[in-house]
Design brief:
Layout lengths: L31 H27 L1 H8 L4 H25 L6 H31 L8 H31 L7 H30 L2
Helix pairs in contact: 1-2, 1-5, 1-6, 3-4, 3-6, 4-5, 5-6
């Protein structure tokens, strides 16, 4: 007796596919869940920035004294590193979305973004050590409380962004070519990395420059 193949349903595929792109239609780059996460992160940073501005308005002299102790040159170098990291992430997206994209080229662009991120982390950790050795910490006054909490919170986000990029870099090692799914991964992590860069630009202007 021949069995009816239609009577035995196939197990569902549990791997979420990348959404198919319709030519001419505008699409949000990357995963929607990542964008929701980005919006939440921006809201949290926005709350902290608002608290910083409110506290600064009440204690302008304290904040000016704290800013005078900062190394603006080091902060500018870190700003350039993150901007270059975002440029490398955008380069990776451009490569991944091209027809017949080569994974090796995309990995190279992602590794470049990781290198700039690592440079930022090393310089920022040096800055933390210098400030702590000089006797400044979160208990010094409100300015240093905000300085350490905001910059270290952002520091953790840089690490998380590098973890995301590293995960995609590893996944690209196992594919022979880049298609829609691979471009989807790259766009997702690049979107997060751009958010990290944007937050630093606001933080730099607010904590280092604004008087």
């Amino acid at each position: 007796m021949q069995s009816d193949a239609r009577s035995t349903p196939l197990p569902p595929d549990t791997t979420p596919p990348a959404p198919r792109r319709i030519p001419g239609e505008r699409n949000i780059p990357g995963d929607m869940a990542m964008w929701i996460f980005i919006m939440i992160e921006l809201a949290v940073f926005g709350f902290f920035f608002g608290a910083y501005a409110w506290s600064r308005a009440k204690q302008p002299e304290v904040f000016l004294q704290g800013q005078a102790q900062l190394d603006l040159t080091l902060a500018l170098i870190n700003t350039v590193l993150l901007i270059l990291g975002s440029a490398a992430a955008a380069w990776a997206v451009s490569l991944a979305t091209r027809p017949q994209a080569q994974p090796a080229q995309v990995r190279k662009a992602l590794m470049t973004a990781l290198a700039f991120g690592a440079g930022f982390l090393m310089l920022k950790m040096t800055d933390f050590v210098v400030k702590l050795n000089a006797g400044y910490d979160m208990a010094t006054d409100d300015y240093w409380m905000f300085y350490f909490s905001l910059t270290f919170f952002h520091y953790l986000h840089v690490i998380l962004g590098m973890v995301f990029i590293g995960m995609v870099w590893v996944r690209l090692r196992s594919v022979a070519s880049c298609g829609e799914e691979q471009a989807y991964w790259v766009e997702t992590v690049a979107s997060y990395w751009h958010m990290v860069d944007l937050v630093w630009l606001v933080l730099f202007a607010l904590v280092y420059i604004a008087h």
